[in-house]
Each structure stands twice: as structure tokens, then as C-alpha cells.
């Protein structure tokens, strides 16, 4: 494959935007490899919509600068990525290792084209696994004031030029301050049920309710919401023979798969967070 | 296939129950075709469990009476069904016809081995479909006091010896009094999402939240809970291109399938409601 | 929603095609509502690829004619549809009614935005259902020479300006001659298993082999292949308790859902058949 | 949980077998925790069926010996397991590590209650991972005559008292002689598609055919069949944007999950292979 650029762009929908971008790309003789164009209008109000765009196009001299000028002059919010540059991930984990193992191994196998630059944990038990792949492991216990702990972690992330934080069952709540440093750049996984169970011990609640599906939701972390924009979800079917431990085990399996998938979508630059706080995933 | 009996039985778990039942059946030279035996102990307390049993065994002279005597003398709650006798269903529907059509057609095709004895609706629009299959259709509008309306419906159900009421998108809330007449004999379907959305216009809420799965839950209706014991659940994957109408459409598809499946499980006598208000489905 | 045009276009991939189309549309002040752009290169040979495009854009005076001139002059294969015009479907069915019912009812509910212009069958049993919706039903028995029978059917289809033939369990093999009249305009459904079973009684074979999933494939019918381009597939999980009849029943359920979905994709003009005889489904 | 016994039993179906077993267990005051009873009659011939039984019951002094005497005297084929004794697994792997990693990590997390006694590989690349968990790793290259190589491997397996061989993408074909040493004690995983593709490069074939689902089948290895009894299957949905590499990646994900699930079913003694060469999985 040739090197390519990936463009994610958002603006108020109006006539001519896509024509503008495609003609700029064409002027530089760069071929468009993929293009997803999605407009969303509020259900009630048909007059004001948003346009979400994703392009993959050949890396040709000059096209990037020209495009950036064009996008800026039209007030289009965008991110532009080079396919040869891998996203730098800081992987956060507490004790449970399932989601952590899955993400780390998929990156190792190059199934997720990213680089894990460090592992941060409030437990020591996953050090060995991380270090066996020569990934720096930072033990940051939660025994100090949260601002102190979080500053240490922010320093570690900064030191490694972290671009994405993946919470692979990191069981500490991040402060608004922390989250604001990485807006829409922190991915988390949590259990999901139909119907959902809020509060302590959701698997126990789900077992008592006799649910037939166990699910997981991968989402961005935001400061002002319990849950941020959903990236991916999946379920596994269970039956009455599953006890609470079996539900937890099944939950781990679906969590691992969904988190890894969500991370893959992100590092392939397939996700746009909308103004309405949900995601467009050009899967 | 030979005619057979189906037995659903529940009691406190103790040594010897299954031995007792199987030896009684064997004494009459009746062969057991299926046997599901499930014990459930509370997670905390290991000393007191419940036993749930389902048997299918050949219909042989004398075995039924002997078994009933045995079960009664040991304080076992049970239901005993004859496979040659079809469950009589009253199908309730409002305007939307998707779940109604699906259940009715599966019964017509003998995919669900039951008999639809009547259709009850607060709208006229589904009369034609019901009557084209020679099923009595009762229009019972909701323009009177609820007790009056419900008494009319109870009379209709009684007249047709109704054994199971299926709410195929019947958009009227049934009173406790009504529900108590058909304990664990009313099946309903409702939408389900991960995470779930309570209140008005759940599909709009789900769309705004950007969910990636649309689901449905088939359950028994109970008087003292918002939702009774879950019989079956399923989901269909969606993406950001689905607008609110598309979500509703997808919801209808999964609702139809799940309701029909739940009804099938019930009329095959595969479902036991536990003391803990959930179901054991020997699927 | 405003009326809109849908464009499906295919050509050799080269720089500038999308720019050309989008700028033509923009010139007429028509807004693009959706745009899917997909290029596919042979895995080995990176130099020659194909471009597949789907546009939805506002219906504005003049844009259609201008676009058609442009597309023709650049040797682009295309189809251009008006969203206000429904696809005319001839629904073919033999005895089994499940897929036939599902497609017909989804069209009635406007879940599938199409018009069923006639039903053709080699059996009489589905006449009543079709006619209860005022759809013309043609009984064309298979007791004559195939060319004679097929000519009758072609005449019926022509009389109703049929644009799409849906084989909803129509158990007659269509000749190459017939298929050539409706290239990529005939959709069929067939069972699918992992692993697949060829020859007589596939459900018996699947049962003997103990498969855990029952599937279905919706595809276009082509003359030169056993199976044409796949539009959609799905599976339902089963277990050892399912006998051969249960497998058939499950097969019917998944067939109905997959066929209806495939038809919906087609009439929403979301499917392009590639030169390599597979489909691009912009789902 | 108390220790318990698991019994898998198979015999010609006749009246009284389950009564016999349950009364023997009850005599020793052992409580039955689970009981699955399944009879299967040939579809055509109703007179000769097979009975498949699975019991879990409390480990009480004397019950095991009494039961074994009883089972033997009635010509019942059986296996009796003690829940406190973990199955000893030899894990075979070639170069690709995904299924190997998944099974090994699930065993480490005690999600699969088994013991991996050794890893056998014809490549060195997975040595580090195995040894980091203190599991003996044997490099047995394929550069000698197959009988010589296989004898080495059989010796390794014997040395470790191997009870189950798991082929986690072990890309060597095992001889009939080898397979006969471990009848229904070797589990393999292979890709599955609807429709299936035989021969070289199935993912390329599947891509060319435009399949919409990628699947995997976990099965026992037998000498006289291409594929032995199926234990589990699953699929993942894909779309036209997946190239051949993406199909392979998706195939790896579903292979890992299905293999791990199949191994779990086996070591929980939930699988019986029937005389008809398929499985009963009491899942």
C-alpha cells in the first residue's frame, strides 16, 4: 500500500463542501481511496444539519498544505493523519487483565495499527506481561490525593507523547481536569445489559433479573456525562445455567472484544464525535 | 411422534426428588424423552436451593394419576400438559401489526403449536387480517372506564377458554386486577437498548445517544413490577446511518422475532418462572 | 424529506471522478445528502482498480440532465433513481409462504419502500393472502414446457412493468434466457450452513453433522453461476435439541429476515454488483 | 462449592435408565446438582434411539463405586470425572499466536478450569510467551519423517499425562495413527464461511465471493473424516470494506473465541460425541 492521508472533517452542512475538498485533492493528482460523507439533520428541524466527512487519499507533495488552507478558510473543523504514523497509546489497567491483554496482543500482532508507549496501573500484577513485550510499565498507586496521582499520570503520558488513553479496566474515576486534557481521546469499556443495571454489582442484579444477553459498550470518556459517546457495542447470549461468576466471565469476553474493536476504529481514524455527543463510525 | 406428557415442577431442592419422579414414570413403562433438571442456590447462602424440573415422557395409561399423587404428597408445585392439546391464545393488538402478524402467521404455519382463539384490539385496522384466517376479532375501544373495558376483555377471554394472553403491541396498560387473572400467563414485548432509555420516545433517545444495537425483551407481565420475568431477548446491529424511523423499524423486526420465540417457548412448556421472579427456559 | 436523486456509478478508478460529479451537483445548488465512495484494487495488482459510488442529492431542476451528460462523456456506468418513484416488484412464490409473507407485509407497512405489482406462483395456496391486499395473483403451473411457462411469466412481468423479481421460495429453476431478461434484478434466498451441504435435503445433512448455526444467503440470480452475488447473510444459533423439523423452521425464520433485508437494500438503491460478480452494499 | 462428580453416559434408550442412576445416587444421600437427559431417535426409524446423560452430583463416599458397578452391569458407556481434578491440556501451536494466546490466558485466569501441561510447536516464536507462564515449551520441528516427529510428540504428551490436545492453529496434519491415540480428545479450530470454500486461500476466495459473514468451527479431530464432530461455531459480520487481510484478521478473532469456548465445554465435561459422529453440548 502507498502511504496515504486520512482526513476527518466536520462543519455545518451546505452545498459545495465535498466538491471543494475533492477538487483540491484532484488538483494535486492524488487519488481518493475512500470517502465517507454523512449528513445529519435534527429530526424536527430540517434546516440546519451537520456534515461529517472522512477521506483517505494518496500522500502526494503539496496536497496536505493546500487542503489545510482550504479547510481553514471555510471554517471546517478537521484532523488530518498520515497513515505511516501510528497512534501512541497509553494503556491503563487495574488488576483484571482481560481487556488489557486483548488490546496489547492485538497491537503486537499489528491487528491494531498503533504503538503502546506505556502501561499505567494502580496495581503491580500486570507489570510482567507489559515488560515481556518491552513496554514501559508505571506503577502509580492510588494512595495519595487524586490531584497528585493524576498529575503523576499526566506527566507519564506527556513524557511518552500519548495521543490516546485506553482504559482497559482501569478502576479509578478520572477527574474532569484529567479528562479535559484528553478530550475524546480516552476510551473506556463498561458492561451493558438489557435492561441496564445501575449501582453496585450489576452482574448480580442481572443474574437476579434473569437476563438472556450480556453486553459491553466501548465509549469515549467525557467530563460532563456519566457516559460519553458510544463507539461500539456487542452482546453474548447466556442462559439460566450461568451463575453470577459465569456472567462476569462472559462480560469479560465481550468487554475485551468490544474495547479492542473500539480502539481499532479510533486509530484507523474512523470515528468522529458529533456536536450531539454521539459518534459517527465509518466502519 | 407418540403423544407425550410434559411436566414442569418446582420445589425446594433435596435429595431424591428426581429419583422419585423417574421411578414412578418407569413403573408405568413410560419412556422419558427429555429431562431437564436445574438447581439454583443463592450465591451467598449455599444451604437452601430450589429445584426446577422439566420432563417429557410417553403418554401411558395410569402414569399421570400416579405421578400427580406422588407430586402432591411431596409438596411439589407442578403443571402437567398433554402434548396433543394445544394452548389457547388470545392475541391482543393495537394499531401496529408487526408482532401480531408474526405470531399469527407462525401459529398458522404450525411453527408455534398453539391455537389463536381470538384477537382483541382497541383498533379496527387488524380485523381484516384476523378474520381472513377465520379468527374471531373483538373490537374493544378504550373509551370507557378501565374496569369496564377490562371486564369486557376478561369475558371475551373466558368465553374462549384462554390460557395465554399475548400482547403483540397492545398499547394499553393492564390493571393489577386484570394481570392477577392470568399470572405468568400474559406475555409482552418491549424495546430494549444498551444502555436503556426510560420515558417517552425511547427510539429518539437512543438515536441521540448513538447506540449501536437495538433490542427487544419478551417477558411475562406481573402486577408488582415494571417488568416481569424475561423469557427471551435479542438485538440487531445498527449504525449512524439509521435515523429515528429506521431505529423504530429495526425495533419492530427484533420485537416480532423475540415475541414469537417467547410464545413458542411458553406453549412448548419450556419456561418455569422461579420464586425469584426470573425464568428458567429449557431451550 | 425533500425528494432526492440516488446515483449508483461504477468506473475504472482514476483521479478526479468524484470531484467531477460533486462539482456538477454543486453547480445546480443541490445538496449532497449521502455519498459513499469505495475503490477496490485487486490484492495482487495495485495498478488497476474500480471505483464504486453512491450519491443521494436533492432533486433540483437541471441537475439530472447535466449529470447524465457528464457521466456519459466520461464513460461511467450508472443508474439514476428518483426517490419518489417506487421500485415495481414481482413476487414469486411456490407453496411455502414464510418469505413471501415477510416481504409482502414489510412492503405493506412501508418498511420496504416498493410496490408489489403482482404475485406469480406455481401453486394456488398463496392466492388468498395476495388478493387480500389487492395484489394481482397469477397462477402459472409448471405443467408445460419450461420455455412456454417462462414466456407466460415474462409476459406477466412485462405487463406490470416489473423492475425487480423477488424469489420468495419459488422452487422452479429459471433458465438462462429468463435470467438474462432481468440481469441483477432477480433476488433469491437459500439456506446456508457452516460447513455447507450440497445436494438433497441439506437440513437433514446439517442435522446429521450437528451444526450449531443455521443461516441464509440472499443473492442475485445469475445464469452462469450456481449462485450469484451475495447481498446479505445471517445465522441463528441452534443446539442439539433441534431436530430436522426444527432446523427447517429456524431456516425459514432466517430466510425471511435475510430476503426482506436484501430486497430493502436493493430498492433503496444501496447495492452495486461489481465486475468481479460480488456486491458492494452501502448499508 | 462442594466437590462434585460429573458423569457423562451413553446407551441405547430404554425405560428405567435415569431412574436407576438417580436412585443409586439418592441412596448415598448425594444431591444431584445438574442433570441433562437427551434422547435422539433417527428421523425415519422411531424404534431405536440413543440416550445421552450428564449428571453433576455431590461427591459423597461410596457413590462413585456403586454407580460404576451399576453402569457397567447395564452396559452403559460412561466417563466419570471429579470436579477437583483439572484436565491436563497439551497446547499445540505453529506460528500464528492468536488462538494459542486466548486459550492460554483463559486458563491462566481460571476462566477455563484446566491445566496446560505443555506447549508443542514446530516453530520457536511462541516459546517466550509459554515460558513466561512457566509452561514447558517443546520445539518439535517438522524436518523429519512424520512418524518420527509424531512419536516425539506422543512421548511428550505421555510424559505430561496429557488428557486433551488443543490444536491452536497447529498447521501440521496429524496421521490416523496419532489421532487414534487421542480419540475425541483432540480439538481443532478452522475457518468457516457461508458458503464454504474448499482448497487453497479460503479467505481470498471468500473475499472474491463477497461473503458478509466470517465464521469458525471448533471440532474434534477424527481420522476417518475431513472434519470431526462440531463442538461450537460462531460468525462475525463483515462488509465490502474488508480486504483479504481484514478477513483474515476477523477470522482470527472468531477462531480464538470459538476455540476457547469449545475447550471450556470439553473440560467442563459438557460434550458427548454421539454414535452418529456429532456432539451433544449441554451448554
Task: Sum this structure up briefly.
Four copies of one chain form a homotetramer. By secondary structure, chain A is an alpha/beta fold. The first copy, chain A, is built from eight helices and 13 strands.
What's the topology here?
4 copies of one chain form a homotetramer.
Chain A: E1 4-12, H1 17-27, E2 32-41, E3 49-58, H2 63-73, E4 77-82, E5 87-93, H3 98-108, E6 114-121, H4 127-132, E7 137-139, H5 146-159, E8 164-167, H6 176-181, E9 186-193, H7 202-209, E10 213-220, E11 230-237, H8 244-267, E12 271-273, E13 279-281
Parallel strand pairs in A: 5-6, 5-8, 6-7, 8-9
Antiparallel strand pairs in A: 1-3, 1-4, 2-3, 9-10, 10-11, 12-13
Helix pairs in contact in A: 1-2, 3-8, 7-8
